[in-house]
Write a structure and sequence with these properties.
Length: 429
């Protein structure tokens, strides 16, 4: 009877109950009906134990670093750097939008932060240059999903914690898929620019101007180098790297660039604390949820069901990508990973799929879901920033989603694309 907590949980979601409460109420009700009071106590005790973790401290630190960089105007310097490099191309501002997202991904690791920060600057600028508002909002939303793929990544930290994976391995495995998404979007922009005669953003910048833009962006661009370099060099752990990123962002914003005042810190801290609290409560509930998943033997039941469909791992990977894509349409990436990873990952690891490879498949797929209609979160953020209807953005984003889906299947069936860097650096088998 314990397995009935899964359909009960889905029912709660359809009724509009917040994910956090659904993840505790559904298994709690079933345990109570089964008379398993001891397990019920364990369920709610694990809520705190799930949050009481040193590795998880990386999440609020990275979120605080992102808030500091946004408030400190670092985003503007990245956009100026991207425009100096690519503004002279046809469809230049659209290319700048994508490149800025790739650069910003190395700072915040958040798709929502990317959409909000870059969209508020680039959507009005693109509209002024003659792009339609729906196209500007669509490319902003599509490129923002690069944020949680290129390290650092909040959802990868969550996956690593829930499933006991190496954060460094997941970070490294996300580099090539993130770059592939960015380059794929630029190819689509190039095709559309030639067909629809998109405007050129600016004249080709002389090398002196590009050099000045590079110098202005030097300190922000050094952030991912410090984070990844420190982790790979064994200087600090991912959690310590996140703390270093906060200190670095504060020094750059307050003392080097002087783009933020000390009086603004309380508001920045408050916003980061609020966002972090939401994420950490979900992670705590996830650890409780995972306890009941184990007690119910749901992974074994799911494994038997999946293997009953076909024993071909390639076909199963195709089916699981379809499942994750549909889930991503309705559920945010973090909760989806928390719910599905403990059920699905053991099945595919038992079939010989590398655990880091499956983690990247899942993280990239669910991240793309953030920009997928009807419930993609960044679609709503893009709509708020651009003042355009979600339905019109959803139609305009389809060509970009097609490229992102292609990347998902490429990294699924060609593991070397995501696994080469972790293996070369000794962070994966």
């Amino acid at each position: 009877m314990l397995i009935w907590f899964l359909p009960l949980f889905l029912l709660f979601l359809m009724l509009g109950l917040p994910v956090f409460f659904g993840m505790l109420a559904a298994p709690g009700i079933i345990l109570w009906l089964n008379g398993q009071e001891r397990d019920l106590t364990l369920l709610y005790r694990n809520l705190y134990n799930g949050m009481d973790s040193f590795p998880l401290m990386a999440i609020p630190f990275f979120m605080l670093a992102g808030e500091l960089m946004n408030r400190g105007g670092i985003t503007l310097r990245l956009v100026e750097f991207a425009q100096a490099l690519m503004g002279h191309l046809r469809g230049g501002l659209a290319h700048v939008n994508v490149l800025s997202s790739m650069l910003f991904a190395g700072l915040s690791g958040s798709a929502v932060a990317d959409t909000s920060a870059l969209g508020s600057m680039l959507v009005p600028a693109m509209e002024k240059q003659g792009y339609t508002r729906r196209f500007a909002a669509a490319i902003t939303a599509a490129s923002s999903v690069i944020g949680p793929i290129i390290p650092p990544s909040g959802i990868m930290i969550i996956y690593a914690y829930v499933m006991g994976e190496s954060v460094a391995a997941l970070f490294l495995a996300g580099i090539v898929p993130g770059v592939m998404v960015g380059l794929g979007l630029m190819v689509v922009i190039k095709i559309m620019a030639d067909r629809y005669d998109f405007p050129v953003a600016s004249a080709r910048q002389p090398w002196a101007a590009r050099g000045r833009a590079s110098l202005r962006a030097f300190w922000p661009l050094l952030t991912p180098v410090i984070i990844l370099g420190g982790i790979l060099g064994g200087i600090f752990t991912p959690t310590e790297a996140a703390a270093v990123a906060v200190v670095y962002a504060m020094i750059i914003s307050l003392f080097v660039l002087r783009t933020m005042r000390v009086a603004e810190l309380p508001d920045v801290l408050g916003r980061a604390a609020l966002t972090s609290a939401v994420v950490l409560l979900l992670v705590g509930a996830a650890m409780s949820f995972k306890t009941v998943v184990s007690l119910s033997h749901a992974p074994q039941i799911m494994a038997d069901f999946i293997l009953g469909l076909t024993a071909n791992p390639l076909l199963l990977l195709f089916l699981i990508n379809l499942l994750l894509f549909v889930v991503g349409m309705f559920l945010d990436a973090g909760p989806a990973i928390i719910i599905l990873a403990p059920i699905l990952a053991p099945v595919f690891e038992g079939m010989g799929v590398d655990s880091v490879h499956f983690a990247i498949i899942m993280c990239v797929n669910l991240t793309v879901g953030l920009a997928t209609p009807p419930m993609g979160l960044v679609l709503f953020v893009a709509a708020a920033v651009s003042r355009e209807r979600v339905t019109t953005i959803a139609r305009a984003i389809l060509p970009f989603l097609a490229v992102e889906i292609l990347v998902i299947f490429l990294i699924t069936y060609f593991p070397a694309l995501s696994m080469t860097i972790p293996r070369l650096t000794g962070f994966a088998d």
